[in-house]
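User: Here's a chain of 477 residues. Predict its fold as tokens.
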Amino acid sequence: MKSLKKNYLYNIIYQMLLLMIPLITTPYVSRILGAEGVGSYSYTCTIAKYFVLAAMLGVQNYGNRSIAAVRENRASLERVFSEIFCLQCICASLASLLYFFFVFHMLSETYRLTGLIQGLYVLSALPDISWFYFGLEEFRLTVTRNIFIKLISLVGIFLFVRTSEDLWIYTLLIASGTLCSNICLWFFIKGYVRLRLPQFRDILKHLKPELLLFVPVIAVSMYKMMDKVMLEALSGVIQVGYYDSAEKIINIPMGLITALGTVMLPRMSHLAAAGDEKKSRTYLSASLLFTSFLASGLCFGIVGTASELVPLFFGREYLDCIPLLIGLAPSVCFISWANVLRTQYLIPRHQDRSYTRSVLLGALINMVLNVLLIPGYQGKGAVIATLCAEAAVCICQTVSTSGQISVLRELLRCLPFYVNGVLMFLFIRLLAQLQLPAEWKLILEITAGGAVYVLLSALFIILLKFRLKLKLFEVKN
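Assistant: Prediction complete.
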């Protein structure tokens, strides 16, 4: 069995790279392309992502879970992989055809060139078998090839994106990088399985369970990506640029949290298939504690530094991002908690209906609030809608698992981290009163604020361990 620590380390390395690349490129790209260029890219990328979702049809979670359940049996592994991949080929081919039809006949000419280039991103869904390696817990391979491709794209952005007219080059670098990255996965497949041609009825048997997991994927996308589409339609592309920029800041630290879910899904699926309930509960409890530590620190850290971070990171043109970033920050807490519950409990135990209901509720809330709030409040309205949707999903998934695990106990164990987060925020705002150059002030806020939070959290963990040891001593005596 693969080491969870090593797999998480691989994913952390990759997520740190994903963190560093936006830190390096976003200030450059936002100034070169401007809010309008960033908004145009974000708008076309959002549309392309919908077609990629249709192409993948829920295979990321379903394939991951299915491979994890049969990975000990080579014959079953080859059969399941071949059947799922053949279904993916059919879906991806249809989605690609529909996408290019949409670009030529329905997309505005303003976005057509960028939309055509985004077609490479849609085509990248066809060779994407990362779910297979995730199911085997072979994260090293997928991480190393992604690092290599991302570094090439990084160099390309600084070499070739020089003016606002180079939006198509920027899009080409990002989209082609994704396609090449997925193609590279096939260079190593022979070491694990051989692709066989299954019968059509064996392919179709995976359609219904994939559709069950496709519904929540689409629902999640409604409040993850539809915001930008609705903002463009109701407020204009510049508001999309502001909102997308704020969301980029949120997505940087979120990678550290979602990396845990990526690593734990196949392990928890394997344990669920083996019936090892005790180990599953231990992993779940530890994961909730760890993600709460990360989420609280990141959330209150972003809120505390937003006023200094945005003008330095994006430029003075993006000052309207500050309230959007502050508004989106609490979603980190909701997303992290829900991510643990769904990837480590609901999906591994095939409780897909509970998962689906929660995200459908979130999508409905988000859609209604977007329609009501965006016309009057623009980007702020989209932020409120997203925050309410994420809160609803988190609460719904918590309620779904409350009858099976002690949710209240887990919440109480994690509560001190959020108290520490508030104390860190207050300390950061005190530092903000110092008369220092903006760059040095931001560095001081991040380092000193982070140090205070880690110190407070370490004291809490020490006290928690001492309390547990004391309880064990009392039981023995």
